[in-house]
Design a protein that fits this description.
mainly alpha, 2 strands, 8 helices, single chain
Length: 111
């Protein structure tokens, strides 16, 4: 799975094996081994690749289908619908979150 993801990401960015190898400090053949899954990238290389491609390590490994690890933080409305939200470790109930939603609605309406 990770090999297919790495190949897709590299090609969609129009990068060569050589370019990515240079960026993360390995030979292009080693990176090719990651794509063919004959070699497993170590964690430090996975982190570097995630930064280069602007995706999460979870996406590269196939744990999630969402390549954008920041998506939750982009839409506050969606984020506030999540369960188990807290403020500095203090759980927030839906009743406590409702005024926060109303404040954001007011701010957006008055723009």
């Amino acid at each position: 799975m990770y090999g297919q993801r790495l190949r897709f990401l590299r090609k969609s960015h129009k990068y060569t094996l050589e370019y990515i190898g240079e960026k993360i400090g390995i030979a292009k053949s080693s990176y090719g081994g990651y794509e063919s899954e004959s070699k497993k990238p170590p964690l430090d290389k996975l982190i570097e690749l995630a930064k280069i491609y602007d995706v999460s390590v979870d996406y590269i490994l196939g744990i999630t289908e969402d390549p954008d690890p920041k998506k939750e933080r982009k839409n506050i409305s969606e984020f506030l619908e999540k369960d188990n939200l807290h403020w500095n470790g203090h759980p927030l109930s839906p009743h406590e979150i409702e005024p926060i939603k109303q404040i954001f609605k007011l701010i957006v309406r008055n723009k």
